[in-house]
TrEMBL record:
Residues 181-327 form the 3-dehydroquinate synthase C-terminal domain. GO terms for cellular component: cytoplasm. Pathway: Metabolic intermediate biosynthesis; chorismate biosynthesis; chorismate from D-erythrose 4-phosphate and phosphoenolpyruvate: step 2/7. Pfam families: DHQ_synthase, DHQS_C. It comes from Gloeomargarita lithophora Alchichica-D10. This is 3-dehydroquinate synthase. The lineage of its organism: Bacteria, Bacillati, Cyanobacteriota, Cyanophyceae, Gloeomargaritales. It is an enzyme of class 4 (lyase). Coiled coil: none annotated. Zn(2+) binds at E184, H249, H266. It is found in: Cytoplasm.
Amino acid sequence: MPIIVSLDERSYPIYISPQSLHRTGELLIDIGGKGKVLIVSNPVIFRHYGEIVFTALITLGFEVQTCILPAGERYKNLKTIERIYQHCAQYRLERRSTIIALGGGVIGDMAGFAAATWLRGINFVQIPTTLLAMVDAAIGGKTGVNHAQGKNLIGAFYQPKAVVIDPNVLQTLPVREYRSGMAEVIKYGVIWEPELFNLLESQPQLSQYRYLATQDLEKILYFSCQTKATIVSQDEREGGIRALLNYGHTIGHAIETVTQYRYYTHGEAVALGMIAAGDIAVQLGWWSKDEQSRQKQLIANVKLPIQLKPDIDLEAIKLALNWDKKVVQGAVRFILPKKIGQAAMTDQVPPDVIHQALICLIAQ
């Protein structure tokens, strides 16, 4: 049975099943898809899985075209969105047509934004191929692109019609990208699901996909997707509880912006952001040094960075925080942990506490 993101008429299923790529056409029919389909992907992912999805759709009568975009966060901009629009126009996509995002979070964000804005909104399906996209980016309807002043400043909430997750595609995921996705998994354990955190802590090896038993991987995917679905179902547009999902992202996004998305993957930046947020929470007395140590150890076990490169300008990071989307009336809002499985939001973090957390991120 699929996990359901419950949003009234915008509700949609999350299918988690091996070999589900081969059933793309069948699943698209199940959600009412018909007619023209544009697959948006990048060259590496399409080489691995494009033919499977293409064939699954063609076999069931869909008219399929492709749009292959360059890979990388630095291409997540309006110029690339224009390329998708050109394909939409060339292939005369209609309102009943479907854009399928076959790829990681960058592809999903851009394809989703194009779907949200072409003809004021056409059908959209997520087929995430990275762990990070499976557990986070593909679920919840956040779409958009980056601006020079910050990450994801241009975008829209636009829910997909379905999310199709095939765990088998992780076999070809580069180790660094797998680890990046594990940062978001750890996030869910810290903010919401202590059973997930305990499951992660119990693993003898977490740093590579091949070390995970099949049943443990499926539990990790289920816990993570169910957590995201539960939170989004309660708060679609981040007016309240959904803000918890930004744990680690406030400082993480600032690090990405300052380093121009070239030093760290998104998950690596989030891992650093979680460590900094944990340190802030310790300074404010929100949670214990022991829990911070457990978080840091779990991040280290995945072989994610726990220390910021010393040549990165801390003042630039603090300046970038002011461009965060969560800034309200000049106050930066942080999601901070209170205990494993519980977090809360605050805009009452003194500048010296933030500074000390960044210093510790370099000095540890």
